[in-house]
Design goal:
The complex is a heterodimer. Chain A is mainly beta. Chain A contains 1 helix and 11 strands; from the N terminus they run H-E-E-E-E-E-E-E-E-E-E-E. Helices cover 4% and strands 50% of the residues of chain A. In chain A, strands 1, 3, 4, 6, 8 and 10 form a 6-stranded antiparallel beta sheet that branches. In chain B, helix 1 (7-21) packs antiparallel against helix 2 (35-67). Classes of the chains: A mainly beta, B alpha+beta.
Amino acid sequence: MAQLESRAQEIRIQGSVSFSFDQIRIEPGGDFDLEAESTDKVNLDIKKLTKNAYWTVMVSKNDVNWDSQVKIYVRRTSSGDGKGFANGGWNYILINNLNSTFLTGYEKLNNIDLQYKVEGMDVSMEAGTYYTDIVYTLFED
Amino acid sequence: MKKLTYPQQMNYWKLKFGWGISRPQPLNIKLTGGYSKLRGILQINNLISFGITITFILVSVLKLNAQHNWDDDDHQLSLTIPEMSLLSIVPANEVIKLEITLPERAGDEFNQTDGNNINSNTWINYSSTLKNKNGQKKLMVQVTSGSIPNGMAIELTAEETKTGKGRCGKPSTTIRLSDKQQTLISNIGGASTGKGKNYGHRLTYKLILVDINKLEFKEPDTFITVTYTISD
């Protein structure tokens, strides 16, 4: 059992993302920027696939105390390293609470860099920190 | 952050395995005549049972691996909204001049209708966020330096804002400025009025003669500073 499981496909995410707004940059009467892009480094690896495997990566979010008026988008900014390849994901896609397809590809691939965008923030939101978990699910086709 | 769960596969496993071991149950019902015959049936049935159980274990293991074609991982994403109270008077550094014209002839009244005693050229802009959405802030005003000449008063009115987002505040009725803090705008929630002239609340200052008998002309010009504060 253990041996069989160790060969199973695997997806790994490294890094986390924080958005914060510096009030010094806001002029009186002004509001937060409508959208913001992440600068934190986050990347994903796809490994331990069976030989010549095609795969699909789905993305969703699992809210902790997220404000539903703020939308989150993700895109990839690199092709990744390895003998495999990925298709799609270059344009921002909206992350919902249900799975949606982010990437498809073939064989193992490492260090696919991800970038996030949030939009919809405004002063009517309660001050504080909002959290959500971004979940990536790898399916071997 | 790594989580591996196989809820569906485990259910499948339990069902199949449970069915396998329940197979020898009919042996408990003693319907056969001889002991040796019963023992023979027992052994055969036990063998069948064992075989079936092993088969189902293998099927289950294969099934478990066949269904395990996915994996997931996650990471946290956070967004921090700061609590803030920001305000400005626009145009910045505007000096407001109010005057009441002296009567030209003895017995005439002071002219308070030529418009020189009124100024409506400034606006107040603010941005505010709250830790509690139902909370509120207020905007206070007071004279912090200089003093209004005896016998005169300065009235201040803030108009409702025609611009902005969120819960902008509600202006008080006209107040008379003094060295004591007074509420000019209340019930400010998470809000932004917009930036610049013609955004936010328009302010109107009006110099009025209250009691001519108390007027003292020490100096022709008096300077006062009016300070606005936004707070919880």
